[in-house]
Amino acid sequence: MKGIWAGVALAVVLGLFYLTWQAGRDTRSGYLYNMPDARAEAGYCLAVVVRVREITRGQGEARLEAFVDQQMAFWGGRVAGQTTQGRVALARDATAPGVNEGAHLHLAIQECGLRAVRFYGQSFAAME
Questions:
Q1: What CA–CA distances, in Å, run from 4 to 11, 15, 79?
Q2: d(CA 105, CA 67)
């Protein structure tokens, strides 16, 4: 009888290990917009600020335009040539059914700025 309970206990423990392992495989990457690495995340954020600049054509509020310039410089320095993946991901996210591109860009530029400040320690003079 003890052997049966030991087998059941072993099966439960192995099941829990399997479920934990499976849950770990399905987790997000930890980078913004589920990008696979830091360079891809930088490419996404650079694509966001470039798209915002395309929309505003540099004619927006001076403080916003300075913030866009500063983010371009910051993310451009971190992207290391990996811009394509970020541009493709932004295009996918911004054109998904039910997504308003302007609203997505508004949130994305804020999230990218906050990521730069909180995670990388960057400070943006335009936001001080």
A1: 11, 16, 57
A2: 14
Rounded CA gap, 2 and 116, in Å? 57
The answer to whether the beta carbons of residues 70 and 126 sit under 8 Å apart is: yes
Which pair of structure tokens corresponds to residue 120? 């990388």
pLDDT digits (tens, 9 = 90+) for 74-123: 888 888 777 888 888 888 988 889 888 888 888 998 999 989 898 888 88
SS3 54: helix
Whose CA is closest to 42, among 106, 127, 119? 119
Q: Say what the pTM is.
A: 0.73
| Tokens linked to 84 | 């394509």
Q: How far is CA 79 from CA 3, 10, 54, 114, in A?
A: 58, 47, 19, 17
Tell me the HSE value of 119 on the side-chain side, using a 13 A CA sphere: 14
Q: Give per-residue pLDDT as tens, 24-77.
A: 454 455 787 888 888 888 899 999 999 988 888 878 778 888 888 999 898 888
